[in-house]
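User: New here, please read:
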Amino acid sequence: MEEFANRIRNYYQDPLDPLAEQFLFRRPPTVGELRRPTQVLLLGNHSSGKSTFVNHLLGDDVQKTGVAPTDDGFTIITHGATATERDGPAVVSNPDLPYEGLRHFGDQLVSHVRLKLRPAELLQTVTLIDSPGMIDEAKAENGRGFDFPGVVRWFAERADLVLVFFDPDKPGTTGETLQVFRESLAGIDHKMLIILNKVDQFQSLHDFARAYGALCWNLGKVIPRKDLPMIYNIFVPLADKPRSRLPMEDFEKARNDLIGELRRAPTRRMDNQITQLQAYAGRLQLHAMVIDKAADRFKSIRARWRGFWLLLFGGLGAAAVGTGMVVALPVIAVVAVLVFVFIEYLILPRSKRRLIARFDQIFEKLHDRELLLRDRAEDLRMMWEEVSPRAREIAEKSGLQSFKKMSWHDRELLEELTSTLIPQLRSKLYDAMRDNEAPAPALEQDRPAMSPTSEPPRPRLVKGDRAGTPKRKTFF
């Protein structure tokens, strides 16, 4: 697994990080984020039983529980030799912890983050992140004081498993829950598990069926799939609760299955990191190639207008000198300055705005062949919808003329990474996981497997020969 982790880190370091910086794309995950422990994010309505489930997992009263909302912050629960707690500023400022990225959500969010260290066996391999219970009243004008859907998205993208809890009283009906599904959990279905908790509250199959049907109805409106994901119907046994009249054996099995999935979260981690790498590289490729093409066109337009200006007024000046009309030179110079200002401050800005407005057409032209394939077209267009607002904002603020042209090497490297190398890496990971008792296979047929602590060779470009013919680049 360390061998695969090293390869992923090197792909971010080169070529993705330099290209992201060149085209002002969002920064890649830090080394701390890539080296983070396995994380499980728990979401749900208030009083849906998240904290009770955490306490059941750890065998200790780590989190406060209650019917009313008992916690308005994000609690990171990880392993420690002794039970200690740290506040938000200490958590986000610690370079050894992978939570620096929470800073940009502001001090209001940081003050709602805490870290708890507990000597529980499960926490040696899994870090739990408990979240505030979702409610109806969290409106934009008088909400939590920070971007709650954005923070949930940040945690969900980095989590290896996302558990979403519902309870019989609120089976997916709170406004904030529906907002989080639409804005924060889109695209991470592969690591999301849905839980209908507290099924021991039902006293008849009729009540259970109504709540289960209501949950499926609400989920169908926010999960864009033909078939709904599996729903774990569970309960946490508590000594002071009256026993339900329903047979509990299947619900107990579902709880054990859920805990088994949670304990297997470390095996999901590397696959999730490859998925995150693939998504980041694909979005960076769209962002960079569209901006690069628009910037290239803009520079061509600017060069033509400047060439026309030089040719016209250079010719007029030469003609004036040649015919002896030297007195006309000051007039020509004034007109030349006015025309230059007209080109630079009216014509070229208008051309830039037109090019930025045509980003969708540039995207379609760059990917015309891929867009003919239905499955590929849907993925590409979905990615472009996510990337395009940021690409337009960057191009407008920075100016198309400020972007250095993407080199042939970078273009080929990015294409090979997204189309070949990352899928190969995932395939080799699956092979290694299927035969986890044997040593992990070498990532290259002619190269022996590296030791867990060794670093793979850095990617580099092989320059062309003396005749100038470019050779294929190699990562190894």
